[in-house]
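Hi there, hope your week has been kind to you so far. No rush at all, and the record is pasted right below.
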Amino acid sequence: MLTTRRRVAAACLLAAVTFSAAGCSSDSDDGSSSDKIAGAGEGETGSPTPSASASAEKNAPKFDLPSDVKAAVENEPTGDATKDAILRDVAYSAQARLEAFGKGTGQTANMNRYFAASALTYWTDRIATVKKDGLTVTGDYRYFGFEVTDVANGKTAAVRYCEDQSKGYSKEISTNKVLRTQPSDKDFILYTLQAAKDSSGDWQVQKQSWKKGDASCVRG
């Protein structure tokens, strides 16, 4: 069982990236090198998210989140077919990562579909650490502000989006205790990433970084 000191430290470390307990301070972290993540593991399996269930896209993924985790995606079409495909798959990648933390493994079908290269390696390692540390995710997560900032030859792209973790928390696996902390601007995270189109036509996240409390993401 986690001690009180370790419980607080783990919650703050988890907040450094994603699937966090709110209210711990940090500036920015790079997903390719940061060691400031701990926390979460596996939870009960639940129903697919509403966004996945509502999708009419051919071969759209289905997400199996824990019953106490919800993901809301706000992703408006741009009118550009290439950009819309990129943003659709990046939104899927955000949900795939949340699903993987809930399951306690980075080797899910959706992670392997929407992540590759150093991004997949990084998150697989982080998810393993999360599970080992005895914490999982709970609460509501919102993804918004999706934007393609660059496309090269229709094969690689730079993308940004925001995550709202103000209602998301870490939770002890052994006790189901939710580790709640005070909300703050740090609950809003800006993600910037590089994605590439694979041979099957999916856009995969290959590199990713983030910054908590970015003014472009903070909502009242």
